[in-house]
Design goal:
alpha+beta; five-stranded parallel β-sheet
Length: 1450
């Protein structure tokens, strides 16, 4: 039937009607594995099969990785054992069943790739009946073939079976046939080649005489029939739509014997060349088939955390699928996770390659089944998928998953989203787990593989995140770790008292055999497991090499890519018997295959990278070297494509942290280092990576238009500094001007949310650079800490923020040296910026009652807050631990390992600073413990005191206590009463005495061992608030309520102290409402060598620096509320302070007047305004009106008046008069500050003038009265002031109309409308009649009209709500974080100031914030004015500064 074979194929294999299959919908995160059967004769297709397995499939798999699809090649070159190949039935069963396994669905054609060549294949002398196959219904065609008595090759059977149509066809063919066409040159070479038989049709009907060929061809009378059958089959394949049939060109490369025998058949293989077109064709066809036949998973239906969870669980299940044996260990883990033991944490540990991950994966797979019973199970496999090596990512995903589980268990108030701030995420991590476990009787199981492979961010290796002793027993944790790497094993044991360790030891021989068989079987490979005459016992040979699972898996990875069946045993023998030597062997193989220089470079990049590299990064790095190091005239160094080696290395690479490739076992990294990485190579490679990453980043160093960066841009930002520091030559660090000393680099890092890692880089760099460079970097590190939030919001203003630093700042110097165009300064420049060094170093986002700091080396700050306490990183400000306690005092041990907090309930709690866990609790006093400090004999002392300081000192009459206790266990050594009310205590080490600041102006001294009263000195004042001892001399200072710092010498015996001096702080006078009624020195301390005194009082919110000559030489300003405590930082160069609101500040101790500026005044400015010509401006305080020159910023004139804290100033539009209010009257001055007249507005002393505005034409003056106690008596007055010297009263809006306190007022541009704001709803009034036209249901402190319209605005704390005259909301001005205090309009823009110390500019057409002025010295802004053109802004700040901002002119 030879001539009818094509017809028979069509009639037999193509039956009935077929329908097109629908695309297969993938499940989110689940991998789809396409098994692709490779069908061909073996000896002549070695090159094509290698190209498919080593190049094409890896390329397709990388393209499809984002869709979770991968191809598994089924290559049976040595997947069929010798005993199987002896039987036609066995070989048919093996091969054809494998074809069926390549069907994605039972009735679809399989995925098969056939290489059609001149050879025919092994002709089967008998066909197996359909009943002998696993799926007999698919083999009826084979029964029919048997009936014809026709014999075809096994290769033909594979193709026939794959192409039969079973009723459904794929949308795009999944059977691919590629016919090889040798080039004319190749055929000419092969014609006379002694091994042409490798590529030739192997059957002949003639007797061959050539002894080299005689035994290589199969003599048969059916040779012509077989050749015709081959062509008929090809013809059939070409004509079918469900088959993709193409031709490809090839040239001859070589052929060689694999087994040469005399007078018998020899064995050999042949290799082709010129396959680029073939590889591209196959890659294109496979990719298209996948894209058309599979629909991508709908990732929009799941959130980020759900998708990540799916990926982790898929990775765990994949690892578990190859796990075998170790049943006893699995049972121990099962009992642990099910709660059958007393330990909460189990630690799997062992050496690399011992099988920890597989064991953990198998246990995790079983544990996940318990979800059916309502238990919570969370698995995380570090380095298994993108982002998995980030501890932050782990914490966020765990939090999200646990929140989802809790909400599903009716805890609907649980926030489904993790906290945005990393600090809050860390601080609430343990509490959230504990709350979940305490609320349910179900188990909470957390399983983490390879914790040693977390990146060292957030102190991951310290294992603080693992466990807390307060966890309920239903929390069960399982982790795996190496024994020594990164110390995670030891730290894990230390973190949890109730833990058990399970060492993963050697596997049994049976388990090893099963593991190797299973690993190879996945790729359809088998080793002989008996003494085969030709091949020997290959399994025994491999297992005799090593019992390490890692070694055997690595060997299997090498074997699966080895293609010559006859030489597998020889290849196994050649493998070294030790893991590091095996890796060296593999590297040598790669070097031979891909080129030594190429492999060295790829391995060097992976070994020396900071935390791994993306594949496209590696390709770009290789191309960069190609471009810069290629010798002149040379075409290329090597083929710089990482993809060609990827498949060989893939099994030895981890792809964690966003898909960043790195060696996942240290042995491979160590092998690479020993083979390649000498000092010269490391330096060269780090310089190469440094220059490359900088070339990626630097094009973004512009504020103008720029090309989109590559997709690995943010990773490049994280890499460049590391490689800069690794590539230092001759101690030259000037290159840091491109990164850590470059404002553009800072901007890019912060906008990429890399602030924490950037801070770590500053710390590391400061440790290694020379001293002068360290000073520069410290300046920049401070800038980053203080401005990161502002730069993140306004990255385009980063340059502006840098240039607005003091000119002596290295930040300003480096930024100025960039020589950017003036317009790059953008927006406004601070014109009267101080010229001296800035002492403020770090701001911490919490206030409190007490603060202390470790040495800069230990880098900690502890803050005692009345709502919570915390430990912060000293240099970055990052919150490390937050404790939900009411703390009033704090003490850090000198080694910074323990922190003690004194609580409001009279007890002390001690925490471990590293883990944040409670170490001990003890001591019991009657009131809040407001002081903890050093004491005698290595003990500590603590004391109670008034926790409200000046608020109630005259009413505070409680007897306070002191106690001395052990630092080791809090056991009390001695306690006693101080005999009256006290405010603070201190310990004098030179005299071994505790001193107490007491009510009644007394200072008492106590023996810390006996409690004996040693000193009892009266200062004669009403109250002594604070006391501090000299660090090395017998001296003492104390601060009183009379703003006096007294210093004494401490005599050998008491009771009195010997007076040395008294220093009065500047007279602070009568302070505004809302300030402290009772002033005084709340805190005072000596400098470390005692040459300075630092003191603070509640009114100025500043720290006064007093020198040895009793001169108040400088003030540190930056707090926006009363400073509760000042403390020394060990080392003598810094102090730290905490206020009662929300800020703590680390200060560098300045020398001289650090705040030199023309606009620093000795009073708080209340109001300011430009004159009509805008060349001058006026300011008011509670005592003066001052006139300033805009250009020179010099004070020109001033006049004293009897003002108060709301003395406002307006300039009359007639340009000849200014109007100022006192508490109850209006004063009229000439523009040269000559007093002209006074109008009494209020008659009663129960109220005061709170606001005053003049109409644009000068005809009306509007005044609001504030009545604090009798709010219903508040009034609004309107006066006619066209002639301000002879102003007359028009009308009054009295209590019958308003009945609440009035705060603010304003008049519309046309003078028609007025507005009143206060505690009652905002009122719009008719300015002629006083009639109330409209009310807006909002109380406010600030309201007004938008110029040139009747639209108005109303302050609502940090917002300004804008309305039209009908009361319809138009928009909202946002951006401030505290109450808006003033607004100025310029054209279509509104400038606002607020208590947050910021100036913001808003576009009134969109209501968007478009600009912000930020300076870390700013406290609350109080008043704002602008020129009409917006060329200059002036803003008064509560730190006695007037900020003059001038717009850049370009």
């Amino acid at each position: 039937m030879s001539g009818d074979f094509t017809k028979w194929l069509e009639e037999t294999l193509i039956q009935g009607k077929t329908k097109e299959a629908k695309p297969i919908q993938q499940e989110v995160g689940s991998w789809t594995e396409i098994r692709l059967f490779l069908s061909s004769t073996f000896v002549d297709t070695q090159a094509e099969r290698d190209a498919i397995i080593k190049n094409v499939i890896p390329n397709v798999n990388r393209k499809m990785a984002s869709r979770f699809i991968r191809i598994i090649p089924v290559d049976l070159r040595w997947g069929v054992l010798a005993e199987e190949s002896k039987s036609c039935f066995d070989i048919q069963k093996t091969c054809l069943n494998q074809v069926d396994n390549c069907r994605v669905k039972p009735k679809l054609t399989p995925w098969l790739l056939a290489l059609r060549t001149d050879r025919y294949g092994w002709v089967q002398n008998e066909n197996m009946a359909s009943e002998g196959f696993e799926k007999p219904e698919l083999y009826k065609w084979l029964d029919k073939l048997q009936e014809t008595n026709k014999r075809v090759s096994i290769t033909s059977l594979e193709v026939c079976h794959a192409t039969q149509m079973l009723g459904t066809t794929a949308r795009y063919p999944t059977v691919f046939c590629y016919e090889r066409r040798f080039t004319h040159e190749a055929r000419t070479i092969l014609k006379n080649h002694k091994m042409r038989w490798v590529f030739d049709f192997e059957y002949t009907s003639e007797e061959l005489q050539d002894p080299d060929l005689k035994y290589q061809y199969c003599k048969t009378e059916k040779a012509a029939e077989y050749e015709e059958d081959r062509e008929n089959l090809n013809s059939y394949l070409r004509g079918k739509n469900h088959i993709l049939y193409k031709e490809f060109p090839a040239s001859f490369k070589n052929a060689r014997y694999t087994c040469k025998r005399q007078n018998a058949k020899s064995f050999g293989v042949g290799y082709t060349d010129g396959l680029d077109e073939f590889k591209a064709m196959v890659e294109r066809d496979l990719t298209r088939a996948i894209e058309i036949n599979f629909l991508s998973a709908d990732t929009d239906s799941v959130n980020k955390y759900e998708l990540e969870t799916i990926q982790h669980e898929v990775a765990i299940k994949l690892k578990a699928s190859t796990f075998v044996g170790r049943k006893d260990m699995k049972e121990k883990i099962r009992k642990h996770l099910s709660g059958d033991n007393d330990t909460n944490v189990m630690i799997l540990h062992g050496e690399p390659g011992c099988g920890k991950s597989g064991l953990l994966a198998a246990a995790a797979r079983d544990a996940m089944k318990s979800r059916e019973d309502g238990h919570f199970v969370f698995v995380h496999a570090v380095d298994s998928c993108p982002g998995s090596s980030s501890l932050e990512g782990f914490l966020r995903r765990l939090r999200a998953n646990l929140a989802l589980w809790r909400r599903g268990n009716n805890e609907i108030r649980v926030d489904p989203d993790p906290p945005e701030a990393v600090s809050e995420l860390k601080q609430t991590h343990h509490d959230f787990i504990s709350e979940a476990a305490s609320s349910h009787d179900k188990r909470i199981t957390i399983i983490v593989d390879a914790v040693n492979q977390f990146r060292d961010n957030l102190r991951a290796w310290e294992m603080w995140w693992l466990w807390r002793d307060f966890y309920p027993s239903n929390v069960r944790i399982l982790i795996s770790t190496l024994n020594t790497e990164n110390n995670t094993f030891t730290n894990a044991k230390d973190a949890c008292a109730r833990h058990t360790c399970l060492e993963v030891a050697d596997m049994s021989r049976a388990d090893l055999l099963e593991m190797v068989s299973g690993t190879l079987e996945r790729y359809n490979k088998k080793l002989t497991n008996f003494d085969d005459p030709l091949l020997g016992n290959q399994m025994e040979l491999l297992l005799s090499k090593s019992s390490s699972p890692l070694y055997l898996i690595a060997s299997c990875e090498a074997l699966r890519r080895f293609g010559i069946f006859e030489r597998v045993s020889q290849y196994i023998k050649s493998l070294p018997g030790e893991i590091s030597s095996l890796f060296g062997f593999l590297i040598d193989e790669w070097s031979e295959e891909y080129g030594k220089m190429f492999v060295e470079d790829v391995c060097g990049l992976l070994a020396l990278s900071k935390d791994g590299l993306l594949e496209n990064e590696i390709n770009r790095l290789l191309a960069y070297k190609e471009e810069h190091e290629k010798p002149p005239g040379q075409e290329f160094l090597y083929e710089s494509s990482f993809s060609r080696i990827y498949d060989s290395m893939a099994s030895f690479l981890a792809a964690g942290g966003g898909g960043y490739l790195r060696f996942f076992h240290d042995q491979l990294k160590f092998t690479v280092r020993s083979k390649f990485l000498d000092d010269e190579f490391k330096l060269k490679t780090n310089k190469w990576m440094r220059d490359f990453f900088l070339s990626v980043i630097s094009p973004q160093y512009t504020d103008g238009e720029k090309e989109a960066p590559p997709d690995f841009y943010e990773h490049a930002l994280l890499q460049v500094v590391y490689h800069q520091l690794e590539a230092v030559e001759d101690n030259d660090y000037s290159f840091l001007k491109d990164t850590l000393r470059n404002i553009h680099f800072i901007r890019e890092r912060i906008t990429a949310r890399q602030h924490n890692s950037l801070n770590e880089e500053y710390i590391k760099a400061i440790e290694v650079v020379p001293d002068d460079e360290a000073l520069y970097l410290k300046d920049w590190a401070k800038f980053v800490q203080l401005y990161s939030q502002n730069i993140r919001e306004f990255p385009n203003l980063a340059y502006n923020m840098a240039m607005n630093q003091a000119p002596s700042s290295q930040v300003a110097k480096d930024t100025k040296a960039l020589n950017l165009p003036e317009k790059a300064a953008s927006w406004y420049v601070w014109a009267n910026i101080p010229h001296a060094d800035d002492p403020m170093s770090v701001k911490y986002g919490s206030g409190g009652a007490d603060i202390c700091a470790s040495s800069p080396k230990n880098d900690l700050v502890a803050i005692a807050g009345m709502k919570h306490a915390m430990i912060c990183d000293q240099s970055s400000g990052e919150v490390l631990h937050r404790f939900g306690i009411e703390a009033f005092s704090v003490y850090l041990t000198p080694d910074a390992e323990k922190v003690f907090f004194g609580l409001g309930n009279g007890t002390i709690v001690c925490y471990d600073t590293e883990s944040g866990s409670v170490l001990m609790e003890g001591v019991s006093l009657s009131e809040a413990i407001c002081w903890i400090g050093e004491s005698a004999d290595g003990n500590l002392s603590a004391g109670t005191a008034s926790s409200e300081k000046a608020i109630s000192w005259n009413k505070y009459n409680e007897d306070c206590e002191l106690v001395t206790f052990s630092v080791d266990d809090l056991s009390v050594k001695k306690s006693w009463s101080v005999g009256g009310p006290s405010f603070l205590h201190c310990y004098s080490k030179p005299t071994n005495t505790i001193f107490t600041a007491m009510k009644g102006g007394k200072v008492t001294g106590w023996d810390p061992i006996t409690g004996e009263n040693l000193y009892d000195h009266s200062t004669g004042g009403g109250c002594t608030y604070s006391v501090a001892a000299h660090p090395s001399a017998r001296r003492l200072i104390a601060g009183s309520n009379e703003l006096i710092v007294s210093e004494w010498e401490i005599p050998e015996t008491g009771p009195d102290l010997i007076p040395l001096r008294e220093v009065s702080l500047p007279e602070l006078g009568d302070w505004p409402s809302g300030r402290w009624t009772f002033g005084g020195i709340w805190s005072c301390i000596y400098s470390e060598n005692g040459d300075k005194i630092f003191a603070t009082e509640p009114h100025s919110e500043a720290i006064h620096i007093i020198n040895q000559n009793s001169v108040n030489e400088a003030q540190l300003k930056g707090h926006a509320d009363c400073i509760n405590k000042i403390s020394l930082v060990p080392g003598g160069k810094q102090i730290i302070s905490v206020d009662r609101d929300a800020v703590s500040i680390l200060w560098n101790i300045p020398s001289g007047d650090f705040a030199s500026t023309k606009q620093s005044v000795d009073e708080e400015v209340v109001s300011l305004v430009f004159n009509t010509t805008e060349d001058k401006y006026y300011t008011t305080s509670k005592s003066h009106v001052r006139l300033w020159d805009v250009e020179t910023m010099e004070l020109e004139d001033s006049v004293e008046f009897n003002g108060f804290y709301h003395s406002m100033i307006v300039v009359h539009p007639n340009a000849t008069h200014i109007v100022v209010n006192t508490e109850m009257a209006i004063l009229v001055f000439s523009t040269s500050l000559e007093h002209l007249t006074k109008f009494q507005i209020l008659e009663s002393s129960g109220g005061n003038i709170n606001d005053m505005k003049i109409s644009p034409d000068g005809s009306k003056l509007m005044i609001t009265e504030f009545q604090n106690h009798d709010s219903e008596l508040s009034k609004c007055y309107v006066w006619n002031c066209a002639d301000p010297v002879n102003a007359t009263h028009c009308f009054t809006i009295d209590s019958s109309n308003y009945r609440r306190q009035m705060y603010c007022c304003n008049i519309s541009s046309d003078g028609v409308y007025g507005i009143i704001g206060g505690h009652a709803p905002v009122q719009i009034i008719d300015m002629e009649t006083g009639e109330i036209l409209r009310s807006i249901n909002n109380g406010c402190y600030l309201s007004g009209f938008i110029p040139n319209s009747s639209n108005f605005f109303v302050e609502q704390r940090e917002l300004l709500l804008c309305y039209d005259i009908e009361g319809n909301e138009l928009g909202v001005l946002r951006g401030h974080s505290d109450t808006v205090q003033d607004v100025a309009f310029v054209g279509n823009f509104a400038f606002t100031i607020a208590d947050d110390g910021e100036i913001r500019q808003h576009d009134m057409s969109t209501y968007e914030c478009v600009y912000g002025f930020f300076n870390h010295r700013c406290q609350q802004f109080k008043a704002l004015a602008s020129t009409k053109s917006g060329s200059c802004l002036i803003a008064a700040n509560s730190n006695n500064m007037i900020y003059v901002l001038k717009k850049c002119v370009t």
